[in-house]
Design a protein that fits this description.
Length: 228
């Protein structure tokens, strides 16, 4: 029982790497709308699709339209393009969109609309999962700002933070009983919040070189399962 909880806490602790990505200011301007001609509905040929904003259906024939290729996840999920996200609002938006475009609601529609609903639903799922977790949200925000960090990239680890994590890991290994484990859980969550706040401030200051420390910064609390 204790081993399972210890492994969960260890996964939460992670490491906080510091990379040098170059001091370029963030440029998070949205992609410009391509072309000036209004798209036409695939079904009736009327002006309507693919549509901008939340108009997923052709205003004339009500056929589901293809996803808007110009929208990023923040726009789709009705969130400000920021590291700070209201997760309750995000969840509400996710449920709202799934009530509109989930494939279950298109079982009696044309094959084209069935296929389009699958695309929309997959896109909404990806957007929700990406923006829900701080790590994936930060990496996605960096990507929108022109900074991509390849998988497996190694960075110089801050020695002070590494020592803190080693100390926490040692205490976890020695922890005995429910009270000790709850105390360590509180310590890890406090450190996690501190790191999250640091990254959020880095994004607000628009310094890619500081925001780049995200890569292996932490795991979101929901990724760790604490056994009772």
């Amino acid at each position: 029982m204790w081993c399972g909880r210890t492994r969960a806490l260890l996964r939460m602790s992670g490491l906080w790497p510091i990379g040098v990505l170059g001091r370029r200011p963030l440029n998070c301007s949205a992609a410009s709308l391509a072309g000036s001609n209004s798209p036409r509905c695939w079904n009736c040929g009327g002006l309507g699709g693919p549509l901008r904003g939340d108009r997923f259906f052709c205003p004339q024939c009500r056929a589901l339209q293809p996803p808007d290729p110009t929208r990023d996840y923040f726009s789709l999920m009705d969130c400000n393009r920021s590291f700070r996200v209201d997760t309750a609002k995000l969840q509400h938006r996710y449920q709202q969109l799934q009530r509109l475009i989930h494939p279950d609601f298109f079982s009696q529609r044309s094959q084209t609309e069935k296929d389009l609903s699958e695309k929309h639903s997959t896109l909404v799922n990806d957007a929700y999962e990406t923006l829900l977790a701080p790590l994936s949200r930060g990496l996605y925000l960096l990507k929108l700002c022109g900074v991509e960090i390849p998988e497996g990239t190694d960075y110089e680890v801050d020695s002070q933070f590494l020592m803190e994590i080693m100390e926490i890991n040692e205490k976890l290994a020695e922890a005995q009983g429910e009270t000790a484990m709850k105390e360590m859980e509180s310590i890890v969550r406090a450190k996690q919040k501190e790191l999250t706040d640091n990254v959020s401030r880095a994004f607000e200051r628009a310094l890619c070189s500081q925001a780049g420390i995200l890569r292996w910064g932490w795991n979101h609390p929901r990724d760790a399962t604490f056994e009772l």
